[in-house]
Write a structure and sequence with these properties.
By secondary structure, this protein is of the alpha/beta class. The protein has 2 domains: 3-184 and 301-389, Aminopeptidase (3-Layer(aba) Sandwich); 186-296, Alpha-Beta Plaits. The chain is 34% helix and 26% strand. It contains 10 helices and 16 strands. Helix 4 (107-123) links the parallel strand 3 and strand 4 (131-137). Helix 2 (15-27) packs antiparallel against helix 4 (107-123) and helix 8 (306-320) crosses helix 10 (376-389). The model has no long low-confidence stretch (mean pLDDT 97). It binds nickel (II) ion.
Amino acid sequence: MNKSSQSLSLAQKLHQQMIQLRRDFHMNPEVGFDVQRTAGIVAKELQKLNLTVKTNVGKTGVVADLTIPGATKWIALRADMDALPMDELNDVPYKSQVKLRAHMCGHDAHTAMLIGAANILSNIRNELKVNVRFIFQPNEEQLPGGAPAMIQDGVLENIDEIYALHVWPTLPVGQYGICVGPAMAIPDTFEITITGRGGHAATPHLAIDPIVIAAEIIQSFQNIISRQIDPLQSAVLTITQIHAGTAYNVIPDTCILRGTVRTFDKKVEQQIKQKMEQILNHITAMHQAKADMNYIHGYPVTYNDHALAHKAKDIAATLVGENNIDFPAQKMMGGEDFAYYAEKIKGCYIHLGCRNEAKGFTRMVHDPRFDLDEECLIYGAALHAELILKNS
Ligand code: NI
């Protein structure tokens, strides 16, 4: 590993401070737009750095500007601050202290490393040739996302390029991954209520059993991806919840299915939704039942600008060498509200390796046992800083 770069050694000096911040956020996770505590700490840290800090942007976001005399170009660096509504199952000293709240997507690390980068860049502001905007946003994890509210409040005004890092548990710490073009999918969600007719479990002929109908629907849905979508397109349809019934001997009146559809193409997205509707109509008609679907369209495709992706790769290579960069990285079926920024201006979303098998950090994000190798904070802060330093 090449640690000779200035940004890496400056990030190294801030490592303990970034770890402290990350662990504090980790122990006190907040979700959605309710990230007041986290945002308060972010604002306090940024104010120490002699930056122009704005709070309550996009409801509870924080934005700080580092203005360089004579510079005309503006680059934005973005971190998300929200946790997930779930319990952490790790047994670590910095375990989440809040029930049903946990930083299982690493946004605690994103926030800490962007504060680290702000620290580095404000200390070497004499060397910079571009203005920098640090964006800390709430509510990445749930629709409608936090990015639209931030954009509405003007965070992209004057901005030429925007970058974000996300911790990536499939990549070892000290490596980066960068997609060219599409990086993350359109993450739609749906809820289907199947209404039959409840009755006694012993007299199914007098009832309309929504559970058996649900089973038929779930089976038929599998045919959409495997038999009806062009195999060269990427698509996922997953049922993640099924809820029905309260007793051993009662056929319930309704059965609720929830799940997600992931695509990279609006046409494929539309095609899947239509096929789902057809299947619901036909199967329920066959059984004199009915189905109502509430289908919610997710974030747009997260798109990495080609030129920015190549530039980010070259800059990252100065930190860790070309052979430590997965480029072009494989796109992924996850969704990300960074898509909204990258839809408006040139953007690049970068995977930051956080895996360390020897230390046992191997779990995927959103796993209740996800954790990361905190060495990645150094590589995160350093790359944020280099993206500014090497840009002109
Ligand atoms: Ni995330």
